[in-house]
Amino acid sequence: MPDNWTESKQPRFPIVVGLAYSKIIELDAGRQIFGVALEIYTQWSDIRLAWKAKDYGVWNPADYGGIQYIWVNPEDVWIPENIVGNAKVLDEIYNEDYLSLKLWFNGTLVLARSYYAELSCPIDVGHFPFDRQKCQVVTMAVSYDRNQVFAAPMVNNDFDATHTSNGEWSCKDIESGIEVWGGSNFKFDVVTFTFTFQRVPHFYIYVIVLPCLILTTLSIIGMFWRPNEQEEQLAKLGIGLTSLVSMTVLMDIVSGAIPKTIKFPLLGLYVVISIAIIAVACVIVVVFPRNGQCPFKDMDKTQSIRLRMFTFFSSHVVCHAIFQILNVASFAVFMSYWKS
C-alpha cells in the first residue's frame, strides 16, 4: 500500500460504524462527564464467509434454500478493531457469551454491542438553565492506518433522537461525522457521533425564577406605593429585609442546583440582580425619608391638576417606576435566552 491511498489500485477496506440506540443517563457539569447507554454496530465484509456460488462472483441464496443470513458466534470470525476512544468508564452490558453476529450470504457481517459509557464532554454552563451542550461519542481503530482501512459513520434513521432525552435534557439532534487523527507518519479515521442537548428549564423557572420575580415586585410595591413618611419607614424597611431573607432561601436552592464551574451561570446572575434591586431600594428608604406634609394638601379643587402632577412626579412614584422597570427588564433579558 503506498503512502497515499489514492495512488493505490487496491481499494481501502471499508468498515461501517453505526449508532443504533442511545439514552442519556446523566450530564455532570462538575466532572465534565456525559453518561449514556449506547448500542453501536459494526459492519464489514469477509468474502471468505460468503455462500459458495455456483457461478463465480454471484451469491444466490436460492441455491441454499433461500437462506439469506445466519447467526454465528463472534469468537469464530475475525472482527475489526473498534473502540470508544473518549470513555472514562466503558461497561459492556452483554458479555461475549450473549452476543451473536449476523452473517449475510454475500459475506457481510454485522455485530452490535451495547455499552454504558461515561465520556469526557466539555460543558459550558454560562447560560444555565437555558444552556445547550454538545457531547461526542468517538470510536476509532487505532491499529489500522487510514491508507488501509476507512470508516464510514451511520446513524439509525428509524431511531428518533428525542428518545435519547431524559427528564432534565432534551436531545435535539444526533450528527455523525468522520475526522482524521494522528501525525505525519501514521493517521487513522475517527468516527464521531455528536449529540446536541438542551436543558429542560421548567423546574428552575417555576421554583426559582418566578418566586424571585414575585418577591421583588411585591417588595418594590410595599416600599414605594406610598410616600416615604418617617413613621412608615420602619415598616417599609421590614418589607425589604424580609424579602432579602426570603431571597437567601432561593439563593440556597440556586447554589445547590447550579454546577460549580469557573463560569457564573445566568440563573445565579439573575437572582443576584434581584437581590441588588431590593438592597438598593432598602438603602433609599433609609437614606431619603420624607419630612413634613405635602405642600398641596390644603389646596382647593381648582388646583387639582397641579396636585395630580405633583403626585405623579413625587419621589416614591418615580422610585417605584424605576425599580419595577429594572425588575421587569432583568426578567425579560433572562427569559430571552430561552430558545426552544
TrEMBL record:
InterPro entries: Neur_chan_lig-bd (IPR006202), Neur_chan_lig-bd_sf (IPR036734), Neur_channel (IPR006201), Neuro-gated_channel_TM_sf (IPR036719), Neuro_actylchol_rec (IPR038050), Neurotransmitter_ion_chnl_CS (IPR018000). Residues 10-200 form the Neurotransmitter-gated ion-channel ligand-binding domain. It is a multi-pass membrane protein. The lineage of its organism: Eukaryota, Metazoa, Ecdysozoa, Nematoda, Chromadorea. GO terms for cellular component: membrane. GO terms for molecular function: extracellular ligand-gated monoatomic ion channel activity; transmembrane signaling receptor activity. It comes from the Eukaryota. It comes from Mesorhabditis spiculigera. This is Neurotransmitter-gated ion-channel ligand-binding domain-containing protein. It is found in: Membrane. Belongs to the ligand-gated ion channel (TC 1.A.9) family. Keywords: Ion channel, Ion transport, Membrane, Transmembrane, Transmembrane helix, Transport. The chain crosses the membrane at residues 203-225, 237-258, 264-288, 309-338. The keyword Membrane applies.
